[in-house]
Amino acid sequence: MLYRRVATLLLPTSVLLSACPAPVDDNEDAFNNDDVDTDTKGEGMPDEATTSSTGDETDTTSESDSTDSTEDTTDGSDPFCGDGTVDPGEECDNGANNADDAECTAACMNAYCGDGLVQIGVEECDDANELDVDGCSTQCILPLCGDGLVQQGEQCDDANANDSDFCTSLCQNAVCGDGFLHTNFEDCDDGNGDDTDDCTAVCEAAVCGDGFVHVGVEECDDANDENDDECATTCDTILCGDGEIVGNEQCDDANMDETDACTTACTIATCGDGFLQAGVETCDDGNVSNNDACVGACVPAVCGDGFTYIGMEECDDANMNDGDLCQTNCVANIYGDDFETGGLMYLPWVTNAPAWAVQTNQKHAGMYAAKSGVIGHSATTSMEFTLNVPGPAIIHFWHRESSESGFDFLRFYVDNVQQGQWSGNAGVWAEAMYNVSAGLHTFRFSYQKDGSVVVGEDAVYVDDITFTPQ
After folding, report:
1. How far, rounded to the nearest angstrom, does the alpha carbon of residue 220 sit from its chain's CA centroid?
2. Whole-model pTM?
C-alpha cells in the first residue's frame, strides 16, 4: 500500500483516476493484475497509460476508460433531504415522514411556532408574525373569547367568564339589554327593550311612578305625585263610582246617589256641598253663607237664629229683647241716621262752627247727606253724637272726600280715639265699619285741613249711619 501510494503521487491526475482499482475485500493487493504491464515495461515496449508518465508528452488514459471508472465510484449515494440521515445543513430528517405539518418539515427543518406551517396536533394556526390580534396568536393558538386578547369580532376580553363585569363571557362590552346583570350599574337586565315588564328598557326595576305601565301590576303610571288626575300615586286608575277609594277620593260607594254619605264626586257629604243629605240636612245651597235662606248649618233661616237673612230681616240678635238694637221680629230699632229728615235731627248731633249741614248735591242714597263746614287752612270742623249702645254692635257709615290728598283729612273718632282717616279727590263713596261695645259712646266726624293748598270741593261727606248687632 505504501509503495502504491508513493508511485501514484508521481503520476498526473488523469493517470491516477485511470489507475484507481475497484475496491476489494480484506485489502487485497490491487496490483496483482498488473503483471502484464510490468513485463511489457521490461521488454522496452511501454503501454499508453504508463509511457505518458515521463517527458513532456503526456498522454492520459482514454476518455471512455475514465468515465467508466468514475461511474463505478459514485454508485448514486449522494446525501439528500428525505434520506433519513441528518446531513450538514439539515436540522432533522425523518425520511418519508418529513412534511410541512409534521415535527420535521419537508425542508428538513424543525417545526416551530412562527414558521408559517401548522404542525398537526401541536399548533392550531401559524401566520408567521408577532401579532396577537390578527386571528392567530403568537402562541399559534386560534382566537378564543376568554383568552385575554381582544381579537377580531370581540369588543373586549378580560379572560374570565364573569357576566356581571364590564366585559361579558361573549367578549362584548356590557350594555343594558344584553341579558347580563352588570353589578353596581344595573338593577336588572332581562335582555329586551320592553318597558312594561319587571325590568324596564333602561335596566331599572319597574316601580310605580317610573312612567311605564307594569302589565299585570299597574293600571296606570303617569310619573307624577298628583292624586287629582286620572292616575293615583299608587298607579291605580281613579274612577269615582268603581267602589275603590283611590287617589284623592274621600269615599267611593259605587253608586250615583247624591243623598247618601258619599257624593257622586266621591267626597264625604258635608253641609255646603250642594247635595241634600237625606236624614241629616234640611237644606244645602252649596255655600257657607249665613245670610241667605239656608244658613251654614244646612237648616232654613228663621228669625231668631242669630243670622240676618238679607232681604228678609233687618237684624237678628237671637234674643227676645225688644229694647236692644233688634226687635224679636227681626226688625231693627232705629239706631242711626240717613239724614232723610233734611237736617241733623234724628241722632243727638252736636256741631261746631262753621257747622256741618245736610245737603242734596252729594249723597250715597236717598236725597240727603251731611257735608263738612266751610273752613280755611289749618282749621277743623266737626259733628258728633253720644249714644248708649244697647249691646255689642257694628257702626256702619258711608263717606266721600274731595280734598288735598295726604294733607286734608276726614277723621272718625270713638270716644276721642281715632279709628280711621281718608283724603283725596277720587269723588267716590266708600263704606266703613267698626265694632262698638255696649254702653255710652261718643262718635265724632271731623274735617281737618293743613296750612295750604285747596283741592277739589275742599269738603267731605257722610251718609247712612247705622248700628247693627255684632
Report:
1. 20
2. 0.39
H or E stretch at 84: none
Backbone φ and ψ of 401, nearest 5°: -125, 145
All cell numbers assigned to 203: 335596566
- Looking at the DSSP bridge assignments, the partners of residue 395 are 434, 467
Phi (first) and psi of residue 311, to 5 degrees:
90, -15
Measured in residues, the chain has a length of: 470
Q: What are phi and psi of 38, to 5 degrees?
A: -65, -40
Q: Mind giving me the DSSP string for 106-163?
A: TTS-B--TTSS---TTT-S---SSS-SSSSS-TTS----TTSSS--TT-S---SS--T
Collect all residues with Cβ–Cβ distance below 8 Å to 265 and sequence separation of at least 6. Answer: 240
Q: What are phi and psi of 349, to 5 degrees?
A: -75, 145
Is residue 206 classed exposed, middle or buried when 0-12, 13-18 and 19+ CB atoms within 10 A define those classes?
buried
Cell of 461: 261727606
DSSP string, 285-324: -SS--SSSSB-TTSSB--TTSSS--TTT-S---SS--TTS
User: Would you say 268 and 262 are in contact if contact means Cβ atoms under 8 Å apart?
Assistant: yes
Q: How far is CA 114 from the centre of its chain?
A: 53
Which residue matches cell numbers 228678609? 312
Does the pLDDT of residue 64 top 80, yes or no?
A: no
Own/partner pairs for 69-74, CB < 8 Å, 24+ apart?
Answer: 69/17, 69/18, 69/20, 70/17, 72/22, 73/20
3-class SS of residue 47? coil
Instruction: Cell numbers for 121, please give them.
Output: 396536533
pLDDT score for 203: 93
Find all residues with CB under 8 Å of 361, minimum gap 6, and list them. none
* CA proximity to 84, closest of 76, 72, 92, 75: 92
Specify whether the CB–CB gap between 204 and 188 falls below 8 A: yes
| Contact between 429 and 364 (Cβ < 8 Å) | yes
Please state the domain extents for the chain: 2-74, 336-469
Q: What is the DSSP letter of 9?
A: H
Which amino acid belongs to residue 340? Answer: E
Cell 281737618 sits on residue: 448
The pLDDT tens digits of the residues spanning 335-366 come to 889 999 999 988 999 999 899 999 999 999 99
Does the domain formed by 336-469 have CATH 3.30.450.20?
Answer: no
